DNA sequence: GTTGGCACTCACCTGCTCTGAGTGCCAATA
DNA sequence: TATTGGCACTCAGAGCAGGTGAGTGCCAAC
């Protein structure tokens, strides 16, 4: 069993190792932290911690380094949950407050988060499955090319080009637009998609083909509300933080394969404090076994959440990263919940 | 003066160095290329090339490496302009042909280009300054929050949230929408912005404030047509190609600071073949002195061009990268020029 | 349970030699 | 005059030896 002081020693090791990037020895610990005991005592504690596989020595005569299990214990029980500085809070409010639309909010959020944490920041687009259709617009770009624009009450705008086989008559376009609007406006995403499926069959024959094309396009746009997207920023931080450049290659690759990250996001469960972490080898299945992810939910509407977080080397400052992720998620919830 | 064969030697050095990543010696050259002369002769040529600062020896007793000046000469005079394989051409057509809208086209383009070249790919959004306003839509999201949507005949859609001080009357919204539509639809971006400036003054007092808010928002959207944006893909290739990881940090940073890249894009001039390169220290002002950029224009409408290209280490395969950039730019011109 | 002491380990630094790829130069050759 | 084989020279990099020091494990004493 690990003693009370033993846990404090683990905490000290995590802190010092994150700060110095070098294995931590018993002497360093007594020098930097006021334990009031000698180095030999610390050594005994460290031997116990090593037995529990919470720390490990890279080679026989070196200091210790936390294991993934050690980080996990640290995150779950030991990490300080200290709030951000008021200057940081102010920065969040000011920077995000200037946003002009949803895209802008999220792009600002992700840049902000990467600057606060010095890590790669990720923000998932809200799914808005509870949203309902506010407006459908159909614009003629060329004789046989239309642009379908879908607007929801969540303020999201989707566009899609519709190619038709033959040139279309403007009045037909108008009638199809009205029909589609009648069938969808005010309905939820799911209901609207269902209504559109059968819509063309109820129309006069001359309109059917056009209506089919447009309805399919709009259904495709509605489908986007299930598919998620990520925005990210700060990948340069990887090259700064990481010491070995070969290790950043799989990470950069994962960042481009958003699917992987979305699956990871999906699997994570927030704890009572609204923040959760996935550490090192817990991500091995995704080729990210030396990488940790700190994630929090944010809410855009009752019952609708999306996630944001940061990604960095296992050896990261969990305390402050978790605080930053939490604060940004809260502020974002407040900002987007207003509408 | 450098002889005819001297240039062939330079060409061989560039080729071999790009392939092997190691300084190229005289013996290697005679072994791999059928020059029909001895190593000593090649050495004489190399001494001349070194005098002209086209190649350099990293240390006294090693092979030679091209200088930036050497790459420049290679690109301008020696690089083969061989076309892509038909399989590659097919891949371009198939992959891009499936696009559903402008965003999709550009995001597919950039991914494609990064896969073809194994470099970081960049695509600039078209500016569409010649475009004209097709439609303006105003949607009420909340009592004092509207969404303004701007659609142009180039198929681009801009959205922006408008906050008003007080709750707005739906019929007022309708009237403002009509007024703004009348003032802008069918006009060019520049004309529409000018017309909107003075629009509110001509309206009844009760509508003025609302009209001012909305007009400002739409003017802001129109302003986006001057500001450019970049999409990029393949930054993981950096970590693969580069041997020293410290060198990728400034590059990753530049990739996040799109402003820098946009300025670089702006300064480049395409040559007669439609492709241009900026090599190594020519980019020193941007902190990219070990990086080269291969760029081509693509055309979206008569008189309107934007750029795309790839970015990678100075030691890159210029021949095939230039071929790929050129082919993709041509195809994109054809695809976007259709509308 | 804690401590000081002590022998032990091992990564890392330094200085050394050795090797080989590659060069520059030169006199001989076509 | 251009080309060639020969040769001495250079120097990065690999491999080895010895020294240093941070850190450990263990133990007897407190």
From TrEMBL, chains A, B:
GO biological process terms, semicolon-separated: negative regulation of DNA-templated transcription
Family, as annotated: Belongs to the HrcA family.
Protein name per its UniProtKB record: Heat-inducible transcription repressor HrcA
Lineage of the organism: Bacteria, Bacillati, Actinomycetota, Actinomycetes, Micrococcales
Domain of life, per lineage: Bacteria
NCBIfam families: hrcA
Function in brief: Negative regulator of class I heat shock genes (grpE-dnaK-dnaJ and groELS operons). Prevents heat-shock induction of these operons.
Gene Ontology molecular function terms on file: DNA binding
Sections of the chain in a coiled coil: none
Gene3D superfamilies in UniProt: 3.30.450.40, Heat-inducible transcription repressor hrca homolog, domain 3, Winged helix-like DNA-binding domain superfamily/Winged helix DNA-binding domain
Keywords: Repressor, Stress response, Transcription, Transcription regulation
Domain Heat-inducible transcription repressor HrcA C-terminal: 103-320
């Amino acid at each position: 069993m690990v003693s009370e002081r033993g846990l404090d020693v683990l905490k000290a090791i995590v802190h010092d190792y994150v700060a110095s990037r070098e294995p931590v020895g018993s002497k360093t610990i007594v020098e930097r932290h006021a334990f009031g005991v000698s180095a030999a005592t610390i050594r005994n504690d460290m031997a116990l911690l090593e037995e529990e596989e919470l720390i490990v020595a890279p080679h026989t005569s070196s200091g210790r380094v936390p294991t993934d299990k050690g980080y996990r214990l640290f995150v779950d029980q030991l990490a300080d949950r200290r709030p951000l500085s008021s200057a940081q809070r102010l920065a969040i409010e000011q920077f995000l407050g200037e946003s002009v639309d949803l895209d802008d909010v999220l792009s600002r959020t992700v840049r902000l988060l990467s600057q606060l944490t010095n890590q790669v920041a990720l923000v998932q687009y809200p799914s808005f499955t509870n949203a309902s259709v506010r407006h459908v617009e159909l614009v003629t770009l060329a004789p046989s090319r239309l642009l379908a624009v879908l607007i929801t009450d969540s303020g999201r705008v989707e566009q899609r080009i519709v190619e038709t086989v033959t040139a279309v008559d403007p009045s037909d376009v108008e009638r199809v637009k009205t029909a589609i609007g009648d069938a969808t406006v005010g309905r939820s995403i799911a209901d609207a998609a269902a209504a559109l499926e059968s819509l063309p069959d109820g129309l006069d024959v001359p309109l059917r083909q056009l209506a089919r094309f447009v309805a399919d396009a709009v259904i495709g746009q509605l489908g986007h509300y299930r598919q998620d997207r990520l925005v990210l920023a700060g990948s340069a931080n990887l090259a700064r933080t990481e010491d070995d450049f070969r290790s950043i290659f799989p990470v950069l690759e994962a960042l481009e394969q958003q699917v992987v990250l979305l699956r990871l996001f999906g699997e994570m469960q927030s704890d009572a404090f609204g923040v959760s972490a996935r550490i090192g080898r817990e991500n091995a299945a995704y080729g990210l076994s030396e990488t940790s992810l700190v994630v929090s939910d944010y809410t855009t509407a009752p019952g609708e959440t999306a996630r944001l977080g940061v990604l960095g080397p296992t050896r990261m400052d969990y305390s402050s990263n978790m605080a930053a992720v939490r604060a940004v998620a809260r502020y974002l919830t407040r900002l987007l919940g207003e509408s």
